[in-house]
Amino acid sequence: MVRPGTDERGATHFLLMRHADRWDLPKGHAESGESPLQTAIRETEEETGIAGDQLRLDPNFQFSITYPVLVRRFGDRPVQKTVRLFLGFIDHPRAIRCTEHAGYQWFDWPPAGPIQAQTIDPLLAAVASHLASDRPQLGNPLQRDQAPT
User: Fold this and answer.
1) Dihedral of the alpha carbons of 51, 54, 60, 66, in degrees to the nearest 10
2) pLDDT tens digits, the chain, 149 residues: what are they?
3) How many domains does the chain have?
4) Residue span of the structural domain in which 106 resides
5) Interior CA angle at 24 toward 23 and 27, to 5°?
6) Whether this model's pTM surpasses 0.85
7) CA torsion through residues 115, 119, 122, 124, sign
8) Domain-located, residue 86
């Protein structure tokens, strides 16, 4: 999730959630009959308190990554986990309600350096590449020369 800045620099920010031992994103498992996009919107609302109707999604961006995780219910065996992520914008800062994380932080865009090598850094690289492309984005506050929608 991305929001316009509120400080004197007017910097744009992106949201990360603080997990016990790493930075993470709002995400979770799909419910029966739910599309990946519906899951992302529901999980964002559940984990941040920001409702789906307060998000503007970039229809041209999706990022998928697969990596191994140890799953307790499978006897701590490694299982391949696939995460599909979307790019959402909010028009102004909103209160974040953490329900599944220890906290959160709004980071300046672009990031100053690596954050988390397994998932966050590849995602941010893909977002940067996407935003630098000629593909139009819906209300992209990261492109200063584009009028808001």
Assistant:
1) -30
2) 888 776 666 678 999 999 989 999 999 999 999 999 999 999 999 999 999 999 999 999 999 999 898 888 888 889 999 999 999 999 888 889 999 999 999 999 999 999 999 899 999 999 999 988 866 455 444 443 333 33
3) 1
4) 2-132
5) 170
6) no
7) negative
8) yes
